[in-house]
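User: Could you check the structure of this?
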Amino acid sequence: MSVTESNVQIRKLSPLLVNQIAAGEVIERPASVLKELVENSIDAGATRITVELEQGGIERISIADNGHGIAPDQMTLALTPHATSKIRESEDLDRIGTMGFRGEALASIASISRLSIHSRIKESDEGRIIEAEGDRVLEPKPIGCPVGTTIEVRNLFFNTPARRKFLRTSTTEQTRCLEWLRDLAMANPAIGVRCICDQKIKLDLPIDQTPRQRVVAILGKELEDQLIEVSVDQYDDARGILVWGLVGLPAIARATSKAQHVFLNGRTIRDRTIQHAIREAYRGLIEPGRHPTAVLMIEMSPTAVDVNVHPAKLEVRFRDQSMVHRAIYHGVKDALGRADVTPTLLQRLPGAGFDSSQAIMPSATPEQINQRLDQQVDKLVEFFETKPASSSSSSSIRSDRPDFRTELKQVLADSPVPMGGSSISPSTPLPTVQRVEQVLQVHSSYLISQDEQGVLIIDQHALHERVMFNKLLSRVTGNGMLEQQALLMPIVLDVPSTVIDRFDELDRLFERIGVQAAPMGPRSVGVQAVPSFLHSRNVEAEPFLVELFDKVDQGGFVPSSEEALHEVLDMMSCKAAIKAGDVLSDTELAAIMQLRIETERAASCPHGRPTTVRLTIEELEKLFDRR
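Assistant: Sure, the predicted structure tokens are below.
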């Protein structure tokens, strides 16, 4: 049906409706208002910003700053759509250096709320106030006020009830506002930020903090010792990238990615390229499904990035995406490589009554710390007592022996703990421990040794699995391949038809890992050669191949990806590694401890689970009542 036949007419939208449509793209909830207004304050050169919220910002949001203010003759213009002081011509879009630039925020907010602006510039003796409600804007009036701008937004979405009913509870909306405000404060450590919610101070950050001080103040001082500094300087002649940041030890990885904060030229962004680089840098250090804690401050030339691709300016487009990925990946990976990522006992044993992402809190009372440590000691003893002892192991500790606790106590006492009940203050340097040749094997599964920081408890299978994995990965890096072992008789396996359909995809993967195979029918595969590595480690090839083809049959397995290669190499190293229950000779114990020193990322297995847990000197002192 044509437009004429249906009597549908094309009309020009009213200014109010235009602004409300724009608000629908930019203003989703009170947090969106807060973000836009605080960004304006930052652009105005403010050194102090005070935010007040009532009912989570639904009823009232007030943003006061000491920036340069708005000139009296520009107050009305400030509420006009697409009026901005930040760009003048189309070429400016290629070099945006401010937080805002579209000139939509104030007009859009005014169209869906009751808004007032108080502002005074330094050169003026008095300020101006302007009020707006929907499409009604009053004339500015003189008012006494300090230099800077205060914007108050009341009754958000009062004239768009359909939007208002989608808002969450005031508590939820307040949480969203605080999340945004913390991000903006983190990206601008020189600016003092204060937030008052329903007359209660929720955030109070001083001016002129260093980036590290600001990050720690927001994330929590209890995490300060578990954050590693990242630094990348590839900036030259207004090209390249500069990165500074703090990333968390694997022990404080979280169930969600909310603890990742990425800033580009002071702007909060969500970028898949950067998220992928961070995730890859932690590969093998944290378990699948966990997300690292990370705060990254990135600086690039405004000409190297397009920020005009998302209404809320959350997404950006890099001119050289691969360069950004490489810089973030290597920066984070190198920082982790220089750090000791071995988790402590308190971070690993569950059921202690506090979050496993936390270590001993500096703010905890001695009674709380004692209680937590008592719980962990019980867990440790229970852990050893419930493991079946190996009758063939002459070096294992039997939990049913009356001297079990005494013998374990003697092992712990071998660590450099001061005698006579004295204590070590946090500032006292720990004594240096020479490399220990003797290692205690417990239940033919765990190794106990020591280092400068305390007692090490090592899972022999997980450690050897990491060693095997790293060796295999180094062989196939680039265009490398594993050696093949030809079979006298082919192994014929029944496989799902989906495996046969994907055989073309598998050819390159099989070639790299040393498998030679071909379809022999609609549901069978013949294997003519297997990796020599498996043969040398006395690993039966058939169970490995069955598991491999099962993975191929599962969704999400992309044979051509590096993730798939890592997964298969992990399977091989797991099957080839020393097992729990294997009794090791003194020579083998010395060899595996030496491999631990030489192997990269030896603190975790390829799955991301720890190979080693440390019982620190501080924890030992508490166990023996020396603190």
